[in-house]
Amino acid sequence: xxxxxxxxxxxxxxxxxxxxxxxxxxxxxxxxxxxxxxxxxxxxxxxxxxxxxxxxxxxxxxxxxxxxxxxxxxxxxxxxxxxxxxxxxxxxxxxxxxxxxxxxxxxxxxxxxxxxxxxxxxxxxxxxxxxxxxxxxxxxxxxxxxxxxxxxxxxxxxxxxxxxxxxxxxxxxxxxxxxxxxxxxxxxxxxxxxxxxxxxxxxxxxxxxxxxxxxxxxxxxxxxxxxxxxx
Length: 231
Prior knowledge:
The protein is 43% helix and 4% strand. By secondary structure, it is mainly α. The protein folds into two domains: 5-107, HUPs (Rossmann fold, 3-Layer(aba) Sandwich); 138-229, P-loop containing nucleotide triphosphate hydrolases (Rossmann fold), CATH 3.40.50.300. 6% of the residues are buried. One of its GO terms (molecular function) is dephospho-CoA kinase activity.
């Protein structure tokens, strides 16, 4: 199972640990560990491969590999499916299978190393930034951290509030992009505004130069609010 320190180790180190594990399991086999630069790797180009080991979750991926192989004029691979072991003690928020994701959830709130003492940094409030693409789990992680007592600041919510009538960016944005971005009720039509800026780097920078400092200021105000509450 992977825990956080292992997730951020260099690829070369992780590959070396994997090779050591595999050779401990069966040293008589020859292992060729390759980095994957795309979802398929050598599975769709190597004519010598004969079998692909998949799980219940990755079976469809194996079928996609075979489709690609046929397109490349290669024979299909035999798909050998292994069953996933179930975790009889998984919680409602965790996966049913035995999973490193569940382990990392259980580690939430556990200090993996002591906090670094830095005289320039105040002890409170201690601010954690959650970033990531769509569907990466930011909302779920924020909810779990909130249950542990964290004061949660949702930048997406602030991003909507900053445009609202009376919000700090409302008048500057209307002044910069014109009344045609307004709905009949005076609110900013984000689709109309988006059409003006997306695909136009100059206009997008013009918008972000207005909005981002305002959101940053709102975040700082929320941080002060959290500090006042002793969070």
